[in-house]
User: Fold YokE-like PH domain-containing protein from Paenibacillus aceti.
Amino acid sequence: MNIIRNFRDESVGLDLDTLTEIKLFKSMSRTTIHYYRGFYINCQNNLVGVIATGRGPAFFLNLDIYFLRERPFRFTLESDHQSNTIHFMWGGQQKMNITYSRELYFHRGIWFDDEKHDFFIWLIRAVDNRKFYEFYTLNRDEPLACSLSGRGRKSMINMEHPSRNAAGLE
Assistant:
């Protein structure tokens, strides 16, 4: 099994070969489970995450895969008192629009979003950081992150294409 961990709960993982969530136990064998660089969440029955590939970070929403170095993209977040709405634009088209309850904490008289537990806030900040692209780009010597072939229109396997810089980064 090829697994990435849940962003909020390390006792749960996503089997990348079947796109199913599984409970992870310490007794599970490292010879049958391979952990890969990436995180995901299950938000309103949508599997949303990021995984390292030879083509750089791949953002996925269910069966749709977006290699973030290959096209202009944008994540935006709108907030009101009780909810956040995350938008993902890819090549000028909206591909994701999810509204979810905010996780807030109170600090020094002010309410803040809990960035340690909010995958989308982490992601919005991460994609503006060059180190994110370096960390989520596999070297030729590293194993491929996963294959979602047969589960969607695209496959994450492709080590031969040279990566381009992500939109907006120099």
Notes: Confidence is low (pLDDT under 50) at residues 145-170. The chain has one domain: 2-135.
